[in-house]
Amino acid sequence: xxxxxxxxxxxxxxxxxxxxxxxxxxxxxxxxxxxxxxxxxxxxxxxxxxxxxxxxxxxxxxxxxxxxxxxxxxxxxxxxxxxxxxxxxxxxxxxxxxxxxxxxxxxxxxxxxxxxxxxxxxxxxxxxxxxxxxx
Length: 135
Prior knowledge:
1 helix; single chain; signal; 135 residues; Outer membrane insertion C-signal; 9-stranded antiparallel β-sheet; disordered N terminus; 56% strand; mainly beta
């Protein structure tokens, strides 16, 4: 488990620097942190780790998000992925990213994501997002 987590995180950060890396924190009843790397104009796979868990029982999530609408200060996305841990299942995130400041690296986000599987639940989250922009 620890080796898999290390390999996934190492793989995300060792990809070519031609696209931007983003880190995020989602506050909800199931809070998590995420790391993603945008490929091209629209494809954004994201690896997420539950933050209210003991290290021995982490919740992990991998989603493939696609930007549906992309403006300078606003992004609307949807995706599809899997969630494993205390709750195993299919996750379908739908969310917005807002970058209100002149430098578009720091922003806010809201997401609604049903999780279908062991338990069927609807997770809503909000939080902050930071993009490491290529200058």
